[in-house]
Amino acid sequence: VAALLALEAVERYPYTWQAELALAEVVRDYRLVWQYDRNIILLGAPFPSPDGTRFLIPFNDGRLQVWDLETYEQLLEVQAYEGKAGNFHIALWSPSGDRILTRSGAEIPRIWDATTGDLLTELRAHGGLNVAWSPVGDQVVTWASEREDTAIVWDARTGEVILSLPGQKGIVKWAGFSPDGLSVATSLGEIYDVETGELLTKLPGYEGLLTNRRQLQMMWSPDGQSLVASIGGNIAIWDSTSGEEILHISTGSEDEKRAWWSPTGDRLLTIAPGTRAPFNIWDANTGEWLCTSVSS
To answer: Is 19 left (phi over 0), alpha (psi -120 to 50) or beta?
Structure first.
């Protein structure tokens, strides 16, 4: 639009330096720098590397590519999965950006060298449908396997199992490392010590949910002191050390909500997944409602 307006002004109206400058800026700053093959489907938007110098693209034919964000040169292509396994896979940068973790619903998770494309290790004991790095990238957790009812913590260098977290009343549907990487929480309301495997805390209020075959996807606070989860139209916050429920927020709606911490951990954002409903922001210390977005 900017280019069309600038051209219209230059060609049809008396010369002005503002119009010429606007056209020059459009030509300089809004060039087409990269275009993917439209016959191949991207499995999500390109993912920038942690240092912001590269981006990663998974394709539905099982390939993944790494590109330079400044020169837009392709740096790497890896055939991560073959056949139908390539139709549904994801790829995640390690926190340091030196490795790439991939998983597919039909295949085992794999870890690749982000520079050479070499396959470094495979997490062979578990076909986890979901994967996540630890904060420092030395470990990986997998969960929601089609073949297992556990969550597993792995050594990201050797591919060896460090810890197997038992499931209960169905598969584990979420697992996540604490910000310091020393603990891992699961959707069963349990927090484990990663090094010893000791059950540190079992959060109250889960038994009824598990009886109804429901599990919660939780989220660690930025300082690791709390966990938040949504239960229908309610938001609960637990102390991650004592397991005590420290805050309960009623959203005033029975619709299922998801909750996210603000970067500073003093506010919560809630929204119904998969909808265009307005989001709400709450005070994470008092539970006070702060504001609501306006739907367009």
So the answer is: alpha
